[in-house]
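Milestone 3.1: sequence recovery, worked example.
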């Protein structure tokens, strides 16, 4: 590896920052303490700060030279509403809140890059340091955009990064084009007619109708979608009834749809509605169909992906960069930023969990798991990537 030496020397301080943030997790749009930590560090290092975009968002402004070129580097700050089972010294002090997705590490890696770039940065232009709230379901990226992120801070491209458990520690993965899926949820209520379970002919059974609709939906994926398009339709909840001898009035189905392509999503939503409505009508029932589109697909832009690969290779070597990483059906609200600006989102390998201190939980070191912890060995690796990316994006004349 060719890490930036001053960042390596700053590693212990970065670890302290990361573990402090980990111990004090805050949920979406509640990241006041975290934003205070970020803003105070940036100000301490002489970096101008703007606060308030996306309620708790922080933007640092790093200018060098005279070029009008600019890029944005984004890190997310929020935690998850879940219980941490780790008992090491930096475990969450807030029951029911946990940094189980590594946003504490993402924030700290960007702070590490900022600390170096403010005094050593070999670039000409502006680097906007975007510390975003509410990635975990709150669409903080969209909120910052709506609050004028790209108008107030004009930039040519924007970049993001996420740790990835199971990928070798300190390696990188990326792919041009779709890399993460859209996130969408549905709730369908089948309204029938309640009756005694011993007299089903006197009612309209919504439970059996829900089963038929669910089976019909699966043909959308297997028979109506092109085999070359990727999509997932998962029913994750079915609620109906309250007694063994009662046919209920209604049954509710809840779940998620994931795709890499908006036109495929359009087709799936329409056909889900059609199948549910016509199936119910055939049995004299009705439906209430709700479909909510949360996050769009995350699609990396080719030119910016090539630049990111060059920066990653400069830091860890070509052998540790997978430029054709397998896309995931998980979702990420950085997709909203990539809809507005060209850019690239990459994975940095978090390892298998062997880095965790004694006192970690018995579960695996996987995202959204109570035993997870960010790998502090990545702090200088991710920060060095940000530095090299800034230098390549904004070269000296």
């Amino acid at each position: 590896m060719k890490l930036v030496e001053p960042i390596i020397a700053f590693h212990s301080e970065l670890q302290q920052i990361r573990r402090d943030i980990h111990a004090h997790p805050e949920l979406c749009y509640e990241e006041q303490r975290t934003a205070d930590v970020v803003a105070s560090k940036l100000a301490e290092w002489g970096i101008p700060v703007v606060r308030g975009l996306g309620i708790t968002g922080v933007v640092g402004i790093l200018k060098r030279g005279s070029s009008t070129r600019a890029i944005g580097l984004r890190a997310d700050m929020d935690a998850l509403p879940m219980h941490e089972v780790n008992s090491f010294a930096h475990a969450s002090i807030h029951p029911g809140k946990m940094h189980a997705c590594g946003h504490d590490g993402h924030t700290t890696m960007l702070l590490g890059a900022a600390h170096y770039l403010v005094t050593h940065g070999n670039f000409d232009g502006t680097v906007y340091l975007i510390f975003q709230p509410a990635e975990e379901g709150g669409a903080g990226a969209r909120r910052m955009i709506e609050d004028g992120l790209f108008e107030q801070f004009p930039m040519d491209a924007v970049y993001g990064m996420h740790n990835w458990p199971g990928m070798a520690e300190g390696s990188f993965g990326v792919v041009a084009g779709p890399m993460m899926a859209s996130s969408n949820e549905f709730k369908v209520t089948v309204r029938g007619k309640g009756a005694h379970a011993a007299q089903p002919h006197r009612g309209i059974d919504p439970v059996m109708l829900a089963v038929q609709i669910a089976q019909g939906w699966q043909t959308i994926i297997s028979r109506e979608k092109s085999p070359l398009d990727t999509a997932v339709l998962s029913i994750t909840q079915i609620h109906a009834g309250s007694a063994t001898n009662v046919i209920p009035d209604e049954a509710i189905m809840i779940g998620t749809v994931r795709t890499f392509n908006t036109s495929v999503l359009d087709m799936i939503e329409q056909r889900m509605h059609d199948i549910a409505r016509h199936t119910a009508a055939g049995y004299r029932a009705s439906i209430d169909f709700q479909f909510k589109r949360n996050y769009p697909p995350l699609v990396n832009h080719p030119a910016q992906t090539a630049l990111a690969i060059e920066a990653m290779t400069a830091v860890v070597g070509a052998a540790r960069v997978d430029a054709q990483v397998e896309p995931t059906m998980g979702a990420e609200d950085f997709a909203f930023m990539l809809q507005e600006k060209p850019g690239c989102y990459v994975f940095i390998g978090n390892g298998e969990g062997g880095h965790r201190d004694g006192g970690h939980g018995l579960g695996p070191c996987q995202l959204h798991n109570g035993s997870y912890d960010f790998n502090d060995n990545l702090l200088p690796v991710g920060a060095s990537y940000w530095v090299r990316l800034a230098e390549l994006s904004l070269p000296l004349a």
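The mean pLDDT is 98. The CA atoms of residues 100 and 192 lie 42 Å apart.
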